[in-house]
Task: inverse folding
């Protein structure tokens, strides 16, 4: 079949794009560093060590761990991410995440309303000029044009001739790309990288694909610094599926809820939906910054009061992003990596304690029975149980020891890699992770009241707020940061009446007795303050 020159040029352009996207690297590794050792630890050594006996939530922990590593790897592949706070956009599929980013940048550059299987996680950063790079399934860097993003998602290759007859059909290529990195001058926030995720869906959903799997979506969001969660106004409130999903996300990640497609509701309905969402989140014990209305079609809203309300909320969203943009970046990689090791360590310690108590009870029973001259045949089953319990203890201790060795091996290797590429990677101590276990006291009280069916007069809350107003917490900083360290030093100085130069916290951590005394003293001090 003969084609005219215009059709031929289109076909040639599609062919070149296809070749570019699916090519494999022939020039050697695409990375500055060798990740083979660290990937062996993640993909083989950790699963092999824990396959026989692991915490019930190990799959979730491991998925988050792998997602954190994928983010770490993204930072190496695309060094423009280094030093950026990641704002991940979460929500169900087609909840308006891409449309929001397009509106924020003032131009349609990201595809919206596409098939889940063609969705590609996309990082957007600020840049002097438009630059698009993809990573395909062969781990090859692929240079692209901004227009190629839409072709890949919506399907490329469809060409029509002068008579509007289709010469070729469209095909989608999203499934051959792992990530897209997009630098653009339209992005006005220098210290932020947006991560446009495909969304989440359950395996039984029509919109389910490997890229929208709940576990994968949760891992992507849990490895971010901040989350924008999108809810469609059409639904009338936040869905139960969203609530369940959000409750699996890390509580310490700030979350802003965006009620999208707000132009489809009246002002009264919109305010009612926002109030309902806030009430639901409060009842479910989900911490959030606020709930704001948004639409990418503000210019089409004819009701001036509705338009003014949405515009005001949109400006508040932008203001919150500006606040995040001004936050000093602190790498969370080490802390997030260590969560898996600490949780597993706690699990094995609990299991060893339980088996040891069982062993003690069995030995005590055998000793008492032997004192009563019981027949050996009766004692034999108990002695078999003792051997099984001792065997379990020994196996658990061996796994725990191996896990500690893997932890040391992992952090040694990841620190070596981080130093080469310039990513901050201080290994956190277990004490840094205790912050995860601290719950808002008011939240605990509300949960207890609901569980026991207790009702209290609002005046009681007002009275307590008045009593504790102005009282400063002893430690009110993020664990592991410099502010936290300075606050901790101040507490020790005031408590122990010593000079700062005499305090050696690292040494205290290494000495069990001194560490225990320090923690006991700090707890006593905290009890004297009403702010914790």
Result:
């Amino acid at each position: 079949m003969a084609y005219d020159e215009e059709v031929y040029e289109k076909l040639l352009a599609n062919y070149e794009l296809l070749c570019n996207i699916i090519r494999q690297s022939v020039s050697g590794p695409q990375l500055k560093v060798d990740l083979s050792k660290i990937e062996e630890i993640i993909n083989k050594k950790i699963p092999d060590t824990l396959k026989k006996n692991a915490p019930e939530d190990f799959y979730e922990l491991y998925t988050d761990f792998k997602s954190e590593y994928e983010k770490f790897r993204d930072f190496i592949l695309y060094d423009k991410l280094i030093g950026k706070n990641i704002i991940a956009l979460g929500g169900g599929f087609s909840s308006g995440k891409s449309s929001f980013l397009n509106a924020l940048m003032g131009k349609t550059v990201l595809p919206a309303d596409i098939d889940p299987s063609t969705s590609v996680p996309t990082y957007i950063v600020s840049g002097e000029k438009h630059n698009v790079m993809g990573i395909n399934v062969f781990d090859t860097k692929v240079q692209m044009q901004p227009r190629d993003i839409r072709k890949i998602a919506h399907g490329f290759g469809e060409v029509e001739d002068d008579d509007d007859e289709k010469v070729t059909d469209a095909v989608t290529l999203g499934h051959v790309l792992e990530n897209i990195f997009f630098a653009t001058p339209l992005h006005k926030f220098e210290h932020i990288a947006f991560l446009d995720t495909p969304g989440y869906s359950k395996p039984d959903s029509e919109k389910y694909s490997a890229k929208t799997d709940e576990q994968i979506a949760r891992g992507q969001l849990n490895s971010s610094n901040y989350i924008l969660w999108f809810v469609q106004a059409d639904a009338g409130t936040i869905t139960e599926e969203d609530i369940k999903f959000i409750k699996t996300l890390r509580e310490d990640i700030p979350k802003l809820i965006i009620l999208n497609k707000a132009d489809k509701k009246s002002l009264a309905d919109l305010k009612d939906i926002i109030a309902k969402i806030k009430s639901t989140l409060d009842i479910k014990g989900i911490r959030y910054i606020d709930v704001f209305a948004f639409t990418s079609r503000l210019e089409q809203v004819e009701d001036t009061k509705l338009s003014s309300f949405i515009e005001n909320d949109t400006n508040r969203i932008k203001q919150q992003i500006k606040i995040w943009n001004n936050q000093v970046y602190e790498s969370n990689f080490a802390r997030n990596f260590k969560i898996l090791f600490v949780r597993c360590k706690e699990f094995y310690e609990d299991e060893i304690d339980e088996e040891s108590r069982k062993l003690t009870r069995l030995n005590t029973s055998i000793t008492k029975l032997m004192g009563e001259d019981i027949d050996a045949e009766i004692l034999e089953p108990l002695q078999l149980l003792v051997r099984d319990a001792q065997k379990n203890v020994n196996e658990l201790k061996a796994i725990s020891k191996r896990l500690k060795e893997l932890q040391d091996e992992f952090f040694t290797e990841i620190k070596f890699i981080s130093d080469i590429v310039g990513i901050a990677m201080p290994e956190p101590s277990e004490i840094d992770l205790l912050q995860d276990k601290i719950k808002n006291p008011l939240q605990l009280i509300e949960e207890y009241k609901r569980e026991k069916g207790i009702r209290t007069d609002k005046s009681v809350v007002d009275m307590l707020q008045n009593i504790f107003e102005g009282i400063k917490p002893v430690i009110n900083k993020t664990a592991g940061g410099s502010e936290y360290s300075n606050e901790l030093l101040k507490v020790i100085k005031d408590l122990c009446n010593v000079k700062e130069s005499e305090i050696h916290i690292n040494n205290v951590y290494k000495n069990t007795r001194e560490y225990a005394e320090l923690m006991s003293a700090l707890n006593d001090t905290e009890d004297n303050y009403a702010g914790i």
Summary: The CA atoms of residues 359 and 386 lie 6 Å apart.
